[in-house]
Amino acid sequence: MGPIRKLAGYRSANGCYFNTRTVVAVPEELLYSTPIGKWCYTAYDDVMEHSQLNDGSNQTAVEVLKFFCELNTIYIQDAAAMMILYPEQCNHPMFKEVPVFQSELFRQFKDTMQDLLINEKSPLDANLEAVLPGISRWQSVNHQALMGVRQTVDQLSTNVVAGFQKIAEDSKAQREASDRNLTSAFVNVAHELLAGKEDMAVAKMRRVEVEGETGCQPTALAQQDTPQVAPVRNNGPNIKRCTSYRMVHKHKSLVSMWNEWHGLQDFEDKFGGIVGRNKLYGKKWRGHLNYQQYSRTSRIIKAIKKHSEEGGNLADMDEWYRNANCSLPNYVEVLQTKGLIPKKAARGKVRTSSN
């Protein structure tokens, strides 16, 4: 706040440092009367002259002596302010042993300093009245914002409860419809068996097991009545939608890469991400993808699982990824260096020695 900064010596208008005692100019005669002033100004002038004659040499000596000169000014100003603000310090041996503090010139300087320090308006008292209304407004705005957030959270909670109720109702309706369809399918199979059409019944049962009736899953009865067959991949119209899928060119974080691979959050779809498409269609669907991008992403996902299973910190992996400029080839090299991805064997012809 402005009052606190100003009390520490900062002017709130422009942010510059300001201290009242620094504006009281010290007379040159008083500066030359201190123990340091008796030699530092002459030394500074001599070294400056020598530096100018020698093309700027001795800069270290110039800066040190310049600092001594500035320190001498601060020494006089702070001594006067200390005697005014803390009179009990006037008994300090420094004020008794150093002759400059008994001089008439210093007494006049101290009177000038006293006029400025006493007549200066306290920055804390001057601005607290202006600050308090601002604090009140700030508190009022925060209160209104908190009330708005609370209303939003309450509404969100209501919507979530209603959403879960609707999902439960829809799920129940879907289960009932699935049961009816499955029952109807088994009734049809039973009719075929009674009619002596065993081959047709078995084929129909297999179709129920593999494809399902309106998405229903095969029951234990169907699995017992029909022989076990290998899963049949669906190469229907949905695979065309998969072949039009494009992987994100450059993820900003490993979380985004993980979500795309598993079909989570922003990448959620009915296929279950890249891993879901692999389960449904194998390699056939991804022939259009960039092989190197897919291969590197696959190895990075495996490295994340491995690092997590070993108790590693996933935040570290994300930091390595950002340090690699989110580049897949660079990040694969990093993980290879850390032993999370095995290095591929070098390609090329193997030379054999001839006898």
Q: N-to-C terminal Cα separation, in Å? A: 89 Å
Gyration radius, in Å: 42 Å
Number of strands: 0
Order of helices and strands: HHHHHHHHHHHHHHH
Write down the overall mean pLDDT.
77
Helix content: 55-70%
- Structural class call reads mainly alpha
Features:
65% helix; 15 helices; 355 residues; mainly alpha; 3 domains
Structural account:
There is one protein chain. The protein is mostly helical. It folds into three domains: 2-120, no CATH class; 133-225; 238-337, no CATH class. It is built from 15 helices and no strands. The chain has helices at residues 2-7, 28-31, 37-53, 59-85, 93-97, 104-119, 123-194, 198-210, 220-225, 238-243, 254-262, 273-281, 291-309, 314-323, 328-337. Helix 4 packs across helix 6, helix 11 packs parallel to helix 12 (273-281) and helix 13 packs parallel to helix 15. The longest helix has 72 residues, at 123-194. The radius of gyration is 42 Å and the shape is elongated. The model is unreliable at 208-232 (pLDDT under 50).
Short description:
This protein is mainly α. It contains 15 helices and no strands. The protein has three domains: 2-120, no CATH class; 133-225; 238-337, no CATH class.
